[in-house]
Write a structure and sequence with these properties.
single chain; 76% helix; globular
Length: 114
């Protein structure tokens, strides 16, 4: 989580106020953190993502961070499911295409533009 914060803090600082400010920063930070992952980090993250305790901690962290957003609940869930699903596919080796990651992030940001 500490590693992720180094991507989140600048993304949040750069994101203008709006109904999905925190969600958008989260999507940007997830994209940047995934793009920066090295192969050995992917393996380590894959093992952590399989831990239910970690999953609960991560979910609570993101829920708390986005609590002040007023974006539609369904949109929030869809964006999180998409970016977190891509992360899981990436660390498990089912996808490695950086272009797909860039297109996903761009599309999610377009969907949440105010």
């Amino acid at each position: 989580m500490a590693d992720f914060r180094r991507f989140l803090d600048p993304a949040l600082a750069a994101e203008p106020r709006g109904p999905a400010r925190h969600l958008r920063a989260y999507v940007r930070a997830m994209g940047a953190s995934m793009a920066a992952l090295q192969r050995h980090q992917r393996r380590a993250l894959a093992s952590v993502l399989g831990d239910p305790q970690y999953a609960a901690i991560w979910s609570d962290f993101v829920d708390e961070m986005c609590a002040t957003d007023s974006v539609d609940f369904a949109m929030h869930g869809m964006c999180r499911d998409a970016i977190e699903g891509f992360r899981l596919d990436l660390v498990q080796g089912r996808v490695s295409d950086a272009c797909r990651l860039g297109r996903l992030v761009a599309r999610l940001l377009a969907l949440t533009a105010s």
